Amino acid sequence: MVYQPRYGHDSSRIIAVEALVRWDHPELGLIMPDQFISLAEETGLIIPLSDWVLKTACRDAQQSLHGLSVSVNISAVEFQSWQVVERIKDALQMSQLDPSRLEIEITENATLWNPENSLEIMLALKKLGVKLLMDDFGTGYSSLSYLRNFPFDGIKLDKSFIDGMPESDSANTIVENIIGLGKAFSLSITAEGVETEGQLQKLMMMECDETQGYLISRPLSLTALQQQIAALDSAAQERAGHNIRSSAGSS
Fold first, then answer.
1. Exposed/middle/buried for 95, CB within 10 Å: 0-12, 13-18, 19+?
2. CA-CA distance, 177 to 191, in Å (whole number)?
3. Which of 185, 82, 194, 76 lies closest to 135 in space, CA to CA?
4. What one-character-per-residue DSSP string does 48-67 give?
5. N or C: which end of the chain has fewer CB within 10 A?
6. Which ranges in the chain belong to alpha helices (H)?
């Protein structure tokens, strides 16, 4: 299990982490999810794997990541069954994590097979108190209608839209319009795949709420994440102290 931070622009700090799984194979080395998740779905192993991710993420958030939200991806296969509601409920009860600190990331594909049933599942999850994020926003075919009809709390803007920023005017325009669309639906906006300072500055100008990507941090182990958060908090306190001293000196 590794965690990739999300950076909040209003607070200028890490406000959430996304739980990501890696397969440390004894012969092949570190294997990324896109190389084994589909196989896990085909074999049925996705359920025990996802349960482990859910329970570990909730436990770590409760015990070691105080105040931070944690997001967990739920696959399309899992979202076809009402068991997903009970599984998330069990993870929350076992960890005693405040449900408002758990975010469930869902792609459009997870709800396409049966929109009516998907809506009921999402409403049941909302009743538990968890938040729902639409992952990879903009890569599907019905994003606008989904924002209107499904109870999402936020959207994660796909990396493919960020890649061309800030050099491409068309990329800038598309991202700005999507951010405006999300805000019209009162949703939080997270830009994924932010890798350059230019992208970050442009997104902040557009009033994007959060960013996630290698510029902020690569996925980290829990221990490394705690160390990074402590270092960032210390740096922020130092900057605040410097600003106070500077203001006192100028007055």
1. buried
2. 13
3. 76
4. HHHHHHHHHHHHHHHHHSTT
5. C
6. 37-43, 46-64, 83-95, 109-112, 115-128, 143-149, 159-162, 169-184, 197-205, 222-250
CA–CA gap between residue 61 and residue 101 (Å, rounded): 8
- CB neighbours of residue 215 within 10 Å: 16
**How does strand 188-191 pair with strand 102-106?**
unpaired
Q: Read off φ and ψ for residue 49, nearest 5 degrees.
A: -65, -45
- Whether 2 and 221 have beta carbons less than 8 Å apart is answered as yes
Task: List residues bridging with 72 in a β-sheet.
Answer: 104
Residue 19 tokens, joined: 């739980």
pLDDT digit string (tens) for the chain, length 251 residues: 999 999 999 888 899 999 999 999 999 999 999 999 999 999 999 999 999 999 999 999 999 999 999 999 999 889 888 999 999 999 999 999 999 999 999 987 787 778 899 999 999 999 999 999 999 887 766 567 777 889 999 999 999 999 999 999 999 999 999 999 999 999 999 999 999 999 999 999 999 999 999 999 999 999 999 998 888 777 766 765 655 556 556 55
Q: Is the pTM of this model over 0.85?
A: yes
